[in-house]
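Consider a typical record:
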Amino acid sequence: MTADSTATPVANTTMQHYWNEVAGPRWVGRQSVQEARNAEMLTQLLAAARTQPGERVLDVGCGTGVTTEPYAVAVGPRGQVTGVDISRPMLDAARQRIAARGLANVSLELADAQVHPFPPGSFDLLTSRMGVMFFADPVAAFRNLIGALRPGGRLCMAVWATIAENTHWRIPYEIAVRRLGAPAPQSPHSPGPFAYSDRDYLRGILSAAGFADIAIEPREFHVFGETVASLAEHVAMFGAVQRLMDEKQADEETRQAIVKETETAYAAYAAADGVRLPATFLLVTARQPG
C-alpha cells in the first residue's frame, strides 16, 4: 500500500474544510455506526459493479475504506484498487483498515478527484458510494475522471435520490424546518448529498463529460441502526439537517429537541433486530466510449 499524496490541487476548498474539520472527524468517531447504516446499499453496488480478478479500480470518495476493501478482495493480488478522498481523517482510518486486512493491492491518495492528475486510461472501473456529490464543477470533475478510464471502461456508482424518497432524511428535515424555518434559497444542485437527485441533471453532467450508455436506476434499500438513538444522532452531525441547524445557529436545547423528536418518529420502524428505515439511492452506470 502506498502513502497518500499531499501536493495535489484542490478545486473545492469549502468541501475540503467540511470533510477535514467537521464531517470527517465525526464520521471516524462513529465509524461502525456509519458503516452499518448503508450496508444494504453497498451490497447492491458491489453486485452491479461486476468486478473481476485482475481489474484496476478507482474508488472516488473512498472515505474510511469500507468500499475499497471489498473491491481489493474482488480484484485479487493481480488487480489494483486506488482509493481517493479529500478527507485526511477518513483516509487515515482507511489506511488502518487496509493495513489490518493485509491488503497489498491498495493505493490511497489524499486528493480532490475533480482536478487530481490520474494516469490516463489506467482503470477498468470507476466507482463511488456517495462520494461524488460534492464537486464544485461536476462536469469538469467527471471529464477528469473519464480520462482515467481505459477505452470501454465502466462507471458504477451510488448517489442519493431525493429527500422525499428517503425516510431517514425526510422525517428529521421536516421536524427541523418546522422548528427552525426553511433554509436560505440555494440551487438544488449545490454540492451536497442531494446534488444529483435530479436524474435529468445527473444524466446531463455525465453526457457532457463524455460518458456513453448512461443508465440511472432507483434502488430501494433500508438504512439500518441498532437503536433509534444511534440513527437520530446522525441528523445533528451530517447532511441537510445539520447544515440547517448551523445556518440558523440553533442552540443546544433546540438541537437536542430535534434529535429527540426524530427518535420518537423513528420508533415506528423498530424491529427485533434493530431499526430499518426505507431509503432509495440511484445506481448509476455508464462507460467510457473509447
Notes: The first helix runs from residue 13 to 29. The first strand starts at residue 56 and ends at 60. The chain has a mean pLDDT of 93. DSSP finds eleven helices and eight strands in the chain.
